[in-house]
Amino acid sequence: MSEDFQKVTESAVTEPQQANPYGPNPADYLSNVKNFQLIDSTLREGEQFANAFFSTEKKIEIAKALDDFGVDYIELTSPVASEQSRSDCEAICKLGLKAKILTHIRCHMDDARVAVETGVDGVDVVIGTSKFLRQYSHGKDMNYIAKSAVEVIEFVKSKGIEIRFSSEDSFRSDLVDLLNIYKTVDQIGVNRVGIADTVGCANPRQVYELIRTLKSVVSCDIECHFHNDTGCAIANAYTALEGGARLIDTCVLGIGERNGIVPLGGLMARMIVAAPEYVKSKYKLHKLRDLENLVAEAVEVNIPFNNPITGFCAFTHKAGIHAKAILANPSTYEILDPHDFGMKRYIHFANRLTGWNAIKSRVDQLNLNLADDQIKEVTNKIKKLGDVRPLNIDDVDSIIKDFHAEVSTPRLAAIKRDHADLDNDDLNPKKTKQ
Amino acid sequence: MSEDFQKVTESAVTEPQQANPYGPNPADYLSNVKNFQLIDSTLREGEQFANAFFSTEKKIEIAKALDDFGVDYIELTSPVASEQSRSDCEAICKLGLKAKILTHIRCHMDDARVAVETGVDGVDVVIGTSKFLRQYSHGKDMNYIAKSAVEVIEFVKSKGIEIRFSSEDSFRSDLVDLLNIYKTVDQIGVNRVGIADTVGCANPRQVYELIRTLKSVVSCDIECHFHNDTGCAIANAYTALEGGARLIDTCVLGIGERNGIVPLGGLMARMIVAAPEYVKSKYKLHKLRDLENLVAEAVEVNIPFNNPITGFCAFTHKAGIHAKAILANPSTYEILDPHDFGMKRYIHFANRLTGWNAIKSRVDQLNLNLADDQIKEVTNKIKKLGDVRPLNIDDVDSIIKDFHAEVSTPRLAAIKRDHADLDNDDLNPKKTKQ
């Protein structure tokens, strides 16, 4: 066996020069991973979230925050949904935001005539193409769908307004039907076609195949809308960009029908890993937490404990072996840098899984002086108490200070509590039951 | 243009016979989507969650609940982490559960000697292979790693105990290094090799390529461990199974280091769509909510509002167009059947996005009698009030009843409040701020 060991190469030197090994796949010449756009739909899809009721003032506040964050488009509820929906749409169009304003309507002239009068920059039309929706929703066949689409598209274009045509429930629609209608609407000049996983059934490789095929049929941009019922929305969005899609629909915290769609924050986590320069230059990532808090408060939900980036423990390291390496170099156990988002890293050392490297770091912070063997000894004391009950920082500090007093003469320097990169609030978040 | 319309085929008749179009890809002859196993790590990875402190009693309660749910393996914290960790491991081994019990140790004889004495069915060994971990964690080269691995594996096998060898941070490790060491350990007879996305950086197509390549190098089973920092853990797990992996590590609610790993419930949502018979026959899905509540309470977190399956709104339909179709056939807007999980569907009709089909359904539930035109009229009244403020069911019922009293003589039949498939509690979940 010992000869086999020699065959194990040590690659540190010969490693190929690839700046970002978890970035875009170089084989994807169609990839838009480094050139994507965001259509935020918090004020349309998000209004379909069970708890959502946005007043005019709240809609305007959210629209301004989204614009400030840097989303490319803001999509609003159809002006025919209700009288207030219409006047709110008009009010937001008058704000003069940098983001383009869209509204989302059924593929019907009655809706289109109202939409083009609101002042929007673009209209998103949608119609169900799966056999389920054709049978149980609008009851129309593909010929009827194509005729309506052409009529609506030509009307909206005649008003000088951007137009997107999307199927609904695309992944349960017949592929030939889909390609036929997308080819038709592309030829008459839509700005974008949309693929929608309306029920949240799609998986990444299926998404990649459909987008790549569609990309060979149309010349316009491709927009994608992914629901999250089976937990794949972010991954599907990323894979769609790899296949050549250009625009992704998001909502703040992913709110929408049922358990929602691609969350803006989660997608930022995914994209910053693949295209750090593009993402950091285009979006104000340090505003993410405020934006999420604004929407969470408006719809009366808590930020999920495990939310990407802003969840209370997203940058908390606990096991001793993790803490040791994080203290030496954060990249060992972090693919995201908390500082990119205005967040902080936290080393959780007050527990039975702690290790002596984490405790050594704490001893240093307390400005105490212990040899490594002594630190290992006090770490064992801490782990013993951690076996009996949950610990907090004060428990650990007491044990360390008592131990220090036993083994040495206290130094004369004032004890300075340096909480660099530590935040006690993060350790004991207030938790109440939903 | 009108000739083009004729070319749009109507596919309802000619559709190919594919029972489950969003199921496994028939081209994946290596796929284990219909033949996967679960290693639940709530009592190992989950113990590394910031808030986790499990007493012996709580560990036993969770282990029994996981076993009852049907997971194949239960992974426990290393017996060398602390004295109590060791005695808890021994206690759980003595429970006589159907699930096999594993413990998770560093690739070191000191740990292995303790592990094999605990009574576990298997030992999971792990060592960092990325240049980050080799430099900042253990500081060893690949030859040292291979030697330690062989020593530990042969020792554990000599005791008649299952053994898994996993790299750590596999997606930032050199491919040749990885394949070399996996080939070595496969040849000496490990039961499984493990791939770990320790920092949560992997994306689905990258996962598929690595697993498919590894599958051609080893003959043993492949286990995968995906962190969720960039929101792709569930999708990566699914894609790994497509590529030939067999076992997925999960935690209840996904709890673990940072924002955790593949959540058990979310993976069930993904897998039931792809392999419904396998999943429903193997796992007690109706116990999922109790299992999640048990763990959520133990670690003092709320179930996220948007949790797959058990989030309060996972089966809530709101927009009028959705409600209409759901009432005709739930499959139009649902890929998951709530009844498979002991959950209920809810049509949210008390809001300004409501439609007359949803209101008609409510009128029927109230055992009132209105013509379609009358229902459209009362729907407009409801939407008007919904523009002014958030509505609840009582608001809507009052409007309907007042309207009904105006337009007709009340029927003599007793008004029966039939809440079939509706649950008022779901409408107004108690929400408090975290």
Automatic annotation (TrEMBL), chains A, B:
Key words of the record: Amino-acid biosynthesis, Lysine biosynthesis, Magnesium, Manganese, Metal-binding, Transferase
Pathway in which this enzyme or protein is active: Amino-acid biosynthesis; L-lysine biosynthesis via AAA pathway; L-alpha-aminoadipate from 2-oxoglutarate: step 1/5
EC category: transferase
Record-listed E.C. numbers: 2.3.3.14
PROSITE patterns in the cross-refs: AIPM_HOMOCIT_SYNTH_1, AIPM_HOMOCIT_SYNTH_2, PYR_CT
GO cellular component annotations of the record: mitochondrion
One function term, GO molecular function aspect: metal ion binding
InterPro entries, per database record: 2-IPM_HCS-like, AIPM/Hcit_synth_CS, Aldolase_TIM, DRE_TIM_HCS_fun_bact, Homocitrate_synth, LeuA/HCS_post-cat, PYR_CT
Biased composition (Polar residues): 8-20
Recorded catalytic activity of this chain's protein: acetyl-CoA + 2-oxoglutarate + H2O = (2R)-homocitrate + CoA + H(+)
Pfam families in the record: HCS_D2, HMGL-like
Keyword match Transferase: yes
SUPFAM superfamilies hit by this protein: Aldolase (SSF51569)
Residue ranges constituting the Pyruvate carboxyltransferase domain according to the UniProt record: 36-289
Region (Disordered): 1-26
Cofactors required: Mn(2+); Mg(2+)
Keyword Transit peptide: no
A GO biological process held by the record: lysine biosynthetic process via aminoadipic acid
Sequence similarity: Belongs to the alpha-IPM synthase/homocitrate synthase family. Homocitrate synthase LYS20/LYS21 subfamily.
HAMAP family, alphabetized: Homocitr_synth_fung_arch
PANTHER family, per database record: HOMOCITRATE SYNTHASE, CYTOSOLIC ISOZYME-RELATED, HOMOCITRATE SYNTHASE-RELATED
Its job: Catalyzes the aldol-type condensation of 2-oxoglutarate with acetyl-CoA to yield homocitrate. Carries out the first step of the alpha-aminoadipate (AAA) lysine biosynthesis pathway.
Name of the molecule in the record: homocitrate synthase
